[in-house]
Design goal:
The structure holds two protein chains of two kinds. Chain A is built from 25 helices and 13 strands. By secondary structure, chain A is an alpha/beta fold. The relative contact order of chain A is 0.09. Helix content of chain A is about 40%, strand content about 15%. In chain A, helix 3 runs antiparallel to helix 4, helix 10 packs across helix 11 and helix 10 packs across helix 16. Chain B is built from seven helices and twelve strands. In chain B, strand 7 and strand 8 form a beta hairpin. The longest helix of chain B has 17 residues. Chain B is globular, with a radius of gyration of 20 Å. The chains are: A alpha/beta, B alpha+beta. Chains A and B meet through helix 4, helix 5, helix 20, helix 21 and helix 22 of A and helix 2 and strand 7 of B. Bound molecules: flavin mononucleotide (FMN), iron/sulfur cluster (3 copies) and FE2/S2 (inorganic) cluster (2 copies). The site of flavin mononucleotide (FMN) has 24 residues of chain A, from strand 8 and helix 24.
Chain lengths: ~600, ~290
C-alpha cells in the first residue's frame, strides 16, 4: 500500500483524544514528533499485517475525536489514518457515512431531536420548531433533526451530546421546548432518566420470563443478578457441552427476534461446524428500526442477562471473542453494559477461564454512530472492521464468512436473552409457551396512541387486540403499524390477528422486530407515510441503484400525492408500485427490499389515497 | 492477443439456463454462462478485469427458489440451479433500474444504454421534471483528467481499480451515503491535493465517461470529438522495461487518448502515468 497523508496536523487535543485510545505513537511513521529520541525513529514502520489488523479501531478512533472535539477535522482524520495505516480517502468515506459524525466544524453541543413516528404523533414538529427558535445561531448548540432515538415510550424525545473530556450526554423524554433547551445547555446536570422499569408496564408481574428482572434487580450489581437466578443457565450450559446447548436451543424452537425469524439453533449449528477458525459471536444491539426500544430496556434493566447469554452462545458456537454492537444513541445502555462486562471480567465470568471451566471468552463493545443500515448483519461486520457500513452480498453467509471473514453467529439481544430460560427451564418447558410454530415469550414495543406505552411481554399467540388492550389503546384507532418501518399497517378491524410468525404471515403482514405503533384518527396518514419514505431515503447506504434512487423517487411521488386522492393519485400510486416491485426484487439487502412495505400496506389495507 | 489462463483444469457445473442444460467450469458466474450460451444480459458495473461490486443491478436474473432476483455478474453458478434470464420479472427490474439511473445521472456517454432504453421501453422522464438529479459540475482541477460525477453511476469500479484490485494507491473512495453518496478523494479535496498518482487506471474502467482524459473532455466541449474518425493502434510503451501495451487513439493525426488492452495477461489494461499521459513528446513536431 502506498499511503499519502496531507500536510494538515492535528491539534494537541485531537492528538490526545486519539492517543488516549491507541496509546502514544511509536515511530514518526505513525505520527510521533521527529525530534523525540529513540521512539521517534523515522527508519522503521509498524506496517503490514500488524497494522492492518488495527483497522477495526477506525470507528472507535472517529468516536474518540468526535466525542472530544464534536467534529472530525482533516488533521485529526489524517493523524488517525497514520496511526492505523488506513488510507485517508477510505477513512473519509467511513467518517461521512455516519450521521453522528461531522467532518465540518459544528458547535460542541449537539441536540438530536427525534422527528420519527411516535414522536411525530406526540408533537415533534412543534417541538423542533420551538427548539430551533430557542437555540438559534449563537446559542452554542447545534440542533439536528433525526430518526427515532429508541425512546418512543416517552415521546417526544431529544438527546444532547456535549463534546469534551469526558463527553457528556443526556436525554430528555418526554420533553418540552423548555426542557430540551435546558438539557442541551447543561447536559452534565440534567435530571436522571426514569428507571428502565418505567418502560415496562408489567414490571414485577410474576409471569414474566424475559423481563422478570427488569425493575427487580439492581442493574449495577452482579451479586443481585446472581441472587435472582443469574448464571444458573451458564452452569447448565457447561454441564451440557456445546452440542448439548445447541440441541436445547433447537428443540426449544427458538427463532431470531431481530426481524428475519431465522432458527437460532440452525444458525449456531452451522457456525459451530465450520472448520475455519476463529469463530466469532456478534450481538446485534443496533436497534435503529423506528419504534423499537426493547433491546435498550433489556440492556439498561438487566445487563448481566445479556453478558451471560452471550457467553452461552459463544460457548455453543466455539467463539472466544464476542462483539456487542451497540447503537450509538444509547448512552445509558452503553454505561450499564460497560459496567456489567467489567464486573463480570473482574469476577472471572469473562476472561481466560470462565467460571473455572477452562473456557476463554470476552466481550468487546463497539458503538455504532448513527446508521440504521448497520443493523443489517453484514453491514455490521463492515462497520466493526472499519469499512463503510455497506451490506455485503450473500452468499457467502455469515456462518461461513462473517466478521473478519470468519464463521460468525450474529444474534439480536432479545434472541440471546431467550437462551437463559431455555437452559434453566429446559427446551420442553420453554417450547410449551406460545404456539407450536412460534415458541416462547415475545417482547413488543408498543407506542403511539396508547395510554401505557412500553415493552410488553406476552407468550406468542396473543392477539393484536389483546396486546393493545393491555396498553390502553385510545379511542378512534385509525391504523396499527406492525413490525416497524419495514413492516406493514393493519386496520382497526384486524385486531384479532394472532401475534405469531405464522399468524401474521397468514394475514399478509409481519411481526418483524415486534413493533406495534398505534395511530388514532388525529394523525395525518399521508404525513406518516412521507416520514417513512424519508427515513428509508436517509438511511439507504447508497450502494445499489434500486434502493439509492428508488427510495428518492418514492419519496418524491408521496410528496406529490400528499394532498391528492383517487384518480388524481392513481398515476403516482402506479409508479410507486412499479418502483417498489423493482426495489423488493433487485436490491442487495433487506433495507431496499422492505422499504416499500409499509407504504404499500397503507395503500392496500388502509386505502390511504382512495 | 487472448489470454490463456494456465490453471488447474476445473470441474464442470451443470445447471439449467432458460430451460437448457448448460455446463460451465466451476467458479463461473451466471453471466459467464449466459455469455458462453450467447445470451445477452445487460451489465454496467461489471468489468472484465475487476470483481464486480454488483451494485447497479441491471443484470438481475430469476433464480428458482430465491426470494429475490440475483445479479448474474457475481452469482456463482451452482449445480442444479434453475436460472431464467428473460422473464417478465427480471425485465421489469432492469427497466426500472435503467429508468432510475437515467433519470438521475447523465448517461449520454455510456455505451449501449440507449439501446437498452429502447429494448426495455424505459421512460426515464416519467418521474417528472422535479425528479432529483445529481447536477454536479465537472471537476477540472488538473491537466490530465476530468471528473464529471454528473455521469457517475457509483459502480465502484474506479474505487476498486485504485484500491486493492489494481493500483494499491487507495486515493478514491465513496463518501456520504444514500443519494448523497459520491466518489471522492480524501476530504473532498482537488485531485492535486490527493493521493492520486495519475495512473489513469480509473479512467480505463469507468463505464460512463464520468472519468475522462482532459483531451477528450475538451474536445467534446468544443464539439470536435469524433470517435468514428479515430484510429486505434496498439504498440509498446517505450518508457521503461516493463513493456506495457498501449493503444493510441488518434484523430486528425493527434493522439487523443491512450488505453491499454485488457486481455494482456501481464498488465490487464493497467498503465502508469507515463504510459497513459506522457504522449505529448510523440507529437511534438517543433
Ligand atoms: C436494514 C436492516 C436493519 C436491521 N437492523 C437490525 C437491528 O437493529 N437489530 C437486529 O437485531 N437485527 C437487525 N436486522 C436483522 C439482522 O440483519 C439479522 O437478521 C439479525 O440480527 C439476526 O439475529 P437473530 O437471528 O437473532 O434475529 C436488520 C436487518 C436489516 C436488513
Ligand atoms: S438495498 Fe439499500 S441499504 Fe441495502 S445495499 Fe442496496 S442501497 Fe444499500
Ligand atoms: S466515476 Fe466511473 S468508475 Fe467511478 S464509480 Fe463513477 S461511474 Fe464508476
Ligand atoms: S506504462 Fe509505465 S510501467 Fe508500463 S511500460 Fe510504460 S512507463 Fe513502464
Ligand atoms: S424516539 Fe421518537 S419515534 Fe422513537
Ligand atoms: S452488472 Fe451485475 S449488478 Fe451491475
Amino acid at each position: 500500500m502506498d499511503l499519502h497523508f496531507g500536510d494538515s496536523k492535528p491539534t494537541d487535543e485531537e492528538r490526545a483524544a486519539i492517543d488516549g485510545l491507541l496509546g502514544p505513537p511509536e515511530s514518526s511513521w505513525e505520527g510521533a514528533a521527529r525530534d523525540e529520541t529513540g521512539a521517534a525513529d523515522l527508519r522503521w514502520a509498524r506496517g503490514g499485517r500488524e497494522a492492518r489488523e488495527r483497522r477495526d479501531l477506525l470507528l472507535p478512533g472517529l468516536h474518540a475525536v468526535n466525542d472530544r472535539i464534536g467534529w472530525i477535522s482533516e488533521g485529526a482524520l489524517d493523524y488517525l489514518c497514520r496511526r492505523l495505516t488506513v488510507p485517508p480517502a477510505e477513512a473519509y468515506g467511513v467518517a461521512t457515512f455516519y450521521a453522528m459524525f461531522s467532518v465540518k466544524p459544528r458547535p460542541a453541543t449537539v441536540l438530536h431531536v427525534c422527528t420519527d413516528l411516535a414522536c411525530a404523533a406526540a408533537g415533534a414538529a412543534e417541538l423542533c420548531a420551538g427548539v430551533e427558535a430557542r437555540l438559534g445561531p449563537g446559542s452554542g448548540v447545534g440542533v439536528e433533526r433525526g430518526p427515532c432515538l429508541g425512546l418512543c415510550e416517552r415521546a417526544p424525545a431529544v438527546l444532547a451530546v456535549r463534546a469534551g473530556d469526558p463527553v457528556r450526554t443526556a436525554v430528555s423524554a418526554p420533553t418540552t421546548v423548555a426542557r430540551a433547551a435546558e438539557t442541551a445547555s447543561a447536559p452534565g446536570s440534567a435530571p436522571e432518566e426514569p428507571p428502565p422499569a418505567f418502560a415496562v408496564p408489567q414490571a414485577g408481574d410474576p409471569s414474566l420470563v424475559l423481563l422478570s428482572r427488569v425493575g427487580v434487580v439492581d442493574p449495577a450489581s452482579l451479586d443481585d443478578y446472581r441472587a435472582h437466578g443469574g448464571y444458573a443457565a451458564l452452569r447448565r450450559a457447561f454441564a451440557l457441552g456445546p452440542a448439548g446447548v445447541i440441541r436445547e436451543v433447537t428443540d426449544a424452537g427458538l427463532v431470531g427476534r431481530g426481524g428475519a425469524a431465522f432458527p437460532t439453533g440452525r444458525k449456531w449449528q452451522a457456525t459451530a461446524s465450520q472448520p475455519d477458525r476463529p469463530h466469532y459471536l456478534v450481538c446485534n444491539a443496533d436497534e435503529s428500526e423506528p419504534g423499537t426500544f426493547k433491546d435498550r430496556v433489556v440492556m439498561e434493566g438487566d445487563p448481566y442477562a445479556l453478558v451471560e447469554a452471550m457467553t452461552i452462545a459463544a460457548y455453543a458456537v466455539g467463539a472466544h471473542k464476542g462483539y456487542l454492537y451497540l447503537r450509538g444513541e444509547y448512552p445509558r445502555a452503553l454505561r450499564r453494559m460497560e459496567h456489567a462486562i467489567g464486573q463480570a471480567r473482574a469476577r472471572g465470568l469473562l476472561g481466560e477461564d470462565v467460571l473455572g471451566q477452562g473456557y476463554a471468552f470476552d466481550i468487546e463493545i463497539r458503538r455504532g454512530a448513527g446508521a440504521y443500515i448497520c443493523g443489517e448483519e453484514t453491514a455490521l461486520f463492515n462497520s466493526i472492521e472499519g469499512y463503510r457500513g455497506e451490506p455485503r452480498s450473500k452468499p457467502p453467509f455469515p456462518v461461513e464468512k462473517g466478521l473478519f471473514g470468519k464463521p460468525t453467529a450474529e444474534n439480536n439481544v432479545e434472541t440471546l436473552v431467550n437462551v437463559l430460560p431455555i437452559l434453566t427451564r429446559g427446551a420442553e418447558a420453554y417450547a410449551a409457551i406460545g404456539t407450536p410454530g412460534s415458541t416462547g415469550p415475545k417482547l413488543y414495543c408498543v407506542s403511539g396512541s396508547v395510554d401505557r406505552p412500553g415493552i410488553y411481554e406476552l407468550p406468542f399467540g396473543a392477539t393484536l387486540g389483546e396486546l393493545l388492550e393491555s396498553a390502553g389503546v385510545r379511542e378512534g384507532l385509525r391504523a396499527v403499524l406492525l413490525g416497524g418501518a419495514a413492516g406493514g399497517f393493519v386496520r382497526p378491524d384486524e385486531l384479532d390477528i394472532p401475534l405469531t410468525f405464522e399468524g401474521t404471515r397468514a394475514a399478509g403482514t409481519t411481526l418483524g422486530s415486534g413493533v406495534v405503533m398505534a395511530f388514532d384518527d388525529t394523525v395525518p396518514l399521508p404525513r406518516l407515510l412521507l416520514r417513512i419514505a424519508e427515513f428509508f431515503r436517509d438511511e439507504s447506504c447508497g450502494q445499489c441503484v434500486p434502493c439509492r434512487v428508488g427510495t428518492v423517487r418514492q419519496e418524491e411521488a408521496l410528496h406529490r400525492i400528499a394532498e391528492r386522492r383517487g384518480a388524481a393519485a392513481a398515476d403516482d400510486v402506479a409508479l410507486l408500485r412499479e418502483v417498489g416491485r423493482a426495489m423488493r426484487d433487485a436490491s442487495i439487502c433487506g433495507l431496499g427490499q422492505t422499504a416499500w412495505n409499509a407504504v404499500e400496506s397503507a395503500i392496500d389495507r388502509l386505502g390511504a389515497y382512495e | 492477443m487472448t489470454a490463456i489462463p494456465l490453471g488447474v483444469p476445473r470441474r464442470l457445473v451443470e445447471f439449467t439456463l432458460d430451460g437448457q442444460e448448460v455446463r460451465v467450469p466451476e467458479g463461473s458466474t451466471i453471466l459467464d454462462a449466459c455469455r458462453a450460451a450467447g445470451k445477452e444480459v445487460p451489465t454496467l458495473c461489471q468489468g472484465d478485469t475487476l470483481t464486480p461490486k454488483n451494485a447497479c443491478r441491471v443484470c438481475v436474473v430469476e433464480l428458482e427458489g430465491a426470494r429475490t432476483l440475483v445479479p448474474a455478474c457475481s452469482r456463482k453458478a451452482e449445480a442444479g440451479m434453475e436460472v431464467r434470464t428473460d422473464t417478465e420479472r427480471a425485465r421489469h427490474s432492469r427497466k426500472v433500474v435503467i429508468e432510475l439511473l437515467a433519470s438521475s445521472v447523465d448517461l449520454s456517454t455510456t455505451p449501449e444504454v440507449a439501446g437498452w432504453i429502447k429494448e426495455y421501453e424505459a421512460k426515464p422522464d416519467r418521474f417528472g421534471p422535479g425528479a432529483a438529479r445529481l447536477d454536479e459540475e465537472p471537476k477540472i482541477d488538473n491537466g490530465l483528467y476530468v471528473r464529471d460525477y454528473d455521469k457517475c453511476i457509483l459502480c465502484y469500479k474506479c474505487v476498486d481499480a485504485c484500491g486493492d484490485q489494481w493500483q494499491n494507491t487507495f486515493a478514491i473512495s465513496v463518501s456520504g451515503r444514500g443519494f448523497d453518496a459520491r466518489i471522492a478523494v480524501e476530504h473532498d479535496a482537488p485531485l492535486t491535493d490527493s493521493a492520486c498518482v495519475y495512473c489513469g487506471n480509473c479512467i480505463e474502467v469507468c463505464p460512463t465517461g464520468a472519468l475522462s482524459f482532459r483531451s477528450e473532455f475538451d474536445m467534446r466541449a468544443a464539439g470536435t470529438w469524433d470517435e468514428s474518425a479515430q484510429t486505434e493502434t496498439t504498440t509498446v510503451c517505450a518508457y521503461c522495461g516493463v513493456g506495457c501495451n498501449l493503444t493510441l487513439h488518434v484523430q486528425d493525426n493527434e493522439i487523443v487518448k491512450v488505453t491499454s488492452p485488457h486481455d494482456n495477461p501481464v498488465t490487464h489494461g493497467n498503465l502508469c502515468i507515463k504510459g497513459r499521459f506522457g504522449y505529448q513528446h510523440v507529437q511534438n513536431r517543433d
